[in-house]
Amino acid sequence: MKNRTAFFMLAAVSVFLAIPLNADEIRLKFHHMLPPVAPGHFAMSAPWAEKVEQDSGGRIKIDIYPSLHLGGQSPLLIDQVREGVVDFVWTLPGYTPGRFPRIEVFELPFVNSNPVVMNLAIADFIDNHPEKFAEYKVISVFVHAGNLIHSEVPIRTAEEFSGLKLRIPTRVAGWMVEAWGATPIGTPVQKIPEMLSKGIVNGT
Predict the structure, then answer these.
(1) Which value, to the nearest 10 degrees, does the dihedral of the CA atoms of residues 95, 200, 70, 38 take?
(2) Which alpha helices (H) appear in 22-165, and where do they start and end?
(3) Which of 3, 25, 73, 159 has a CA between 20 and 30 Å from the CA of residue 178?
(4) Cα(186)–Cα(174) distance, integer angstroms
């Protein structure tokens, strides 16, 4: 059984309304929860910010704040950009369950086994339902190739999930883990090492 996690990068609508066209230099804040060593930071966010600066001739600079350096918790990122505290965020819609319920469909198991098809489908959904994101400007949306389970004990059969405590990123993943007989424990990605080292969870 395979499921995926949906991610998206959002900008505040005010970013596109409040920037003066004749400004000599524009500095924008990009906040996310991943550590600097994560591929999502060094292979995606940072190169994108560099390209924006390059393509604007150095006029637009994006300062990236990884690891929630500007404060708050992962579920609050969506409100930080909506309220204009920051200009961009990268987050999971599943961190705020119920706010974007239709996008959670893309996290369900057995929906599709091809991540390319899933990414095209989720992009098509965003394009066809802009009213669902009226308070935001969606810069990017994607699902990854699939979730894997990393545990301190081998799991070879469905029965071996029973009694385990597994960290989950979203409520959809929690429903699935619970159906297997394990206990889902929700926590942001940056807390995983601490929870594993302290034995709070058996895997993720």
Answers:
(1) -80
(2) 39, 46-55, 77-82, 115-128
(3) 73
(4) 8
Q: For the whole model, what pTM was predicted?
A: 0.82
Across the strands, what pairs with 94? Answer: none
Is the same domain home to 102 and 173?
no
Contact of 59 with 25, CB cutoff 8 Å: yes
What separation in angstroms does the CA of 108 have from each of 50, 60, 77, 112? 34, 38, 23, 9
Q: Which residues span the domain enclosing 168?
A: 158-197
- Ranges of the chain with pLDDT below 50: 1
**Tell me, what's the pLDDT at 3?**
54
Q: What is the pLDDT of residue 24?
A: 79
Cα 180 versus chain centre, distance: 24
Tens-digit pLDDT profile for residues 119-174? 899 899 999 998 888 889 898 888 877 778 889 989 999 899 999 999 998 888 89
Helix (H) / strand (E) containing 30: strand 26-32
Are residues 7 and 143 in contact, defined by beta-carbon separation less than 8 angstroms? yes
